[in-house]
């Protein structure tokens, strides 16, 4: 993983600025299909910033948004509804029951509100963590006479249901 420290300055005029220190990191997480994944974020605690946003780089909608002291699920991507939350008061994202479709590049950003604009809040987003999630399907072994019955079966002539079979794939069986 790559880690470096940064200093973020947001200027609101000649005199007024907000200075924050943060640590940027790149992480890699590997989990098995069906398990829960914890995506680490090096942002400050959720209650110490104005908000926190988790995004996947190939999606338009966010994965998880926390602002004004609570989750904001109004524009959450449908594939993540009911499957994710912040873990134990941290900025780490807990993603339940992962599938291969969850594999990808995730970004954690914290949000800072401009303290000098009150009518319509303006947020600045600061990228602090990039996580590559790998969801592995694993493999099982099927043996003749084992009594294991596949969930799906395609009947084909000349193939036996013996050998290494990837999970979440169709299994070739004897007629």
Automatic annotation (TrEMBL):
Pfam families: V-set. It is found in: Membrane. It comes from Neogobius melanostomus. Residues 34-109 form the Ig-like domain. It comes from the Eukaryota. Its main location: membrane. This is Ig-like domain-containing protein. GO terms for biological process: regulation of cytokine production; T cell receptor signaling pathway. GO terms for molecular function: signaling receptor binding.
């Amino acid at each position: 993983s790559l880690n470096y420290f940064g200093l973020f300055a947001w200027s609101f005029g000649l005199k007024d600025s907000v200075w924050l220190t943060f640590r940027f990191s790149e992480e890699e997480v590997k989990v098995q299909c069906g398990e829960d994944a914890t995506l680490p974020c090096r942002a400050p605690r959720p209650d110490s910033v104005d908000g926190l946003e988790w995004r996947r780089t190939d999606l338009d909608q966010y994965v998880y948004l926390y602002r004004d002291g609570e989750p904001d699920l109004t524009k959450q991507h449908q594939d993540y509804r009911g499957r994710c939350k912040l873990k134990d008061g941290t900025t780490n994202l807990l993603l339940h029951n992962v599938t291969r479709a969850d594999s990808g590049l995730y970004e954690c950003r914290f949000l800072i509100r401009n303290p000098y604009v009150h009518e319509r809040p303006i947020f600045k987003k600061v990228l602090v963590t990039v996580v590559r999630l790998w969801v592995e399907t694993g493999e099982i072994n099927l043996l003749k006479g084992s009594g294991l019955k596949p969930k799906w079966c395609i009947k084909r002539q000349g193939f036996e249901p013996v050998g290494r079979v990837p999970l979440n794939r169709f299994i070739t069986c004897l007629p």
